[in-house]
Structures are given as C-alpha cells and as structure tokens.
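not sure who needs this but someone in the group chat was asking about VacJ family lipoprotein from Roseomonas indoligenes so here u go. i didnt clean anything up, its just raw.
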Amino acid sequence: MFQASIRVLVCLGALSLGACASRNADLQASATPGDPWEATNRDVLDANLAVDDAVLKPVAQGYRAVVPEPIRTGVRNVLDNIQEPRIFVNNVLQGRFLDAGHTTMRFFFNSTVGLGGIFDVATDFGIARRTGDFGQTLYSWGLDDGPFVMLPLAGPSNVRDTVGLVADGFTNPLTYLIPFEGNVARAVVGGVDLREQNIENLDALRSGSLDFYARLRSVWQQRRDAELGRSGAVGDRLDVLEDPGAK
C-alpha cells in the first residue's frame, strides 16, 4: 500500500531497516486485545480513506446532487427488497421462523403492491424489516468473532463476519436469477447509495475523532453487538459513543 511504502522509506532513511522492523513489532505487540493485526489494519484504513477521498465520496456527492431524493429512496427500497430472500434464508438457518414469515410477507407485498420494491408498503403495513446475514447465522451457531479486520473498501469486520460476507453472496436465491452484469451493477449502486447515506456521519466521525481508526472500530463493534442482540449493546448512534483516542 502507498502509505505503508512511504513509512518503510522513512524508516530506511532515518533509522535503518532494523529499527523499522522493531517499530512494526512493537506495534503488533501493543495491539488492542481482539485486534492483533492493528498495524496492518491501520494501513488498510489509510488506503481505504485515500480511495474514498479520491473516488467514493465525490461519486456519492455527485449522486446526491444529480438524483432527486424520491428517486434515491426508490432505488434504496429496490436494493433492500432484493436482499429480503437472503434475510429469509438466514432467518431460517437461525431458527427464527417468525422473522422468516415476516420477511416473506415483506418481500411479497413490496414486490407486488410496492411495484418491485420501489415503495416500501410493508413498513406502512406495520411489517418492519428484519435482520439476517450469514455472519449473524454463524454467531447463532456458536462461532466466535475472531480478530478484528479492516477489509479493503468493505471496511470494518472480523474473521467470522468476513466469512459470512462471502457466504451471503451465495445464500440469496436471486443472485442466481440475475445475470452477472446485473449483480455487479447492483453491488456498485448499493455501494454508492450506502456512501451517500453516510456522507455527514463519516465526516463527523473523522473530524471529531482523535484516533479515527479506534473510533471507527468502536462504532462498528457496538453497532454489530446491537445487530447480534448482545446484552449491553448501545446500537449505532454515533453521538453516544466515546472516542477511544481521547482516553
């Protein structure tokens, strides 16, 4: 990665290769519990931020500026509706059959009355969206989180949820019905839409954090705890989360 290469050159010029290797070893030794790959994860985050500043954020801002909000909402509803079969499969795998029934009703009403998911009529009918991903399924089966990992472009995760992220691409039956190009387009549009929804949140998180990496890790972990139903989880409100870098 570019910034990692720069650090290597600085170490070579100022301290020698041996001192640089020692510094990296110290970083690994002092890593936060649950995050043994912190030094590498920070490098990945630096690369992600570089790509975000150069490409992703400008594209998301352009999308917001060009596409009216009602159309963006319709696109988001369609993308969410396409994910309902994946949620259904994971609800069943987790033994959450009542949630699976609710998910089925959501998909039926939104796909028909909601014109292919453009309109979220199921929520208007009082049928709230359920959660369900394969990382959550693996958790319900007793698998531990594993170390925290910062994925290229995809962002914060852990070993279990990374496996789940890959598996989710295969657990959605619609994936096999949509042509490859359609799945790629869906992923790209979904990524742009997600980034557009979080322009202000990420800006506030970056500008208000003494240690953005530690804060992002904390925000992600607390949000994931809430999704998994762990006791004591505070949800995904950014304003109630402490900045670990301030301690």
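also DSSP finds twelve helices and two strands in the chain. if thats useful
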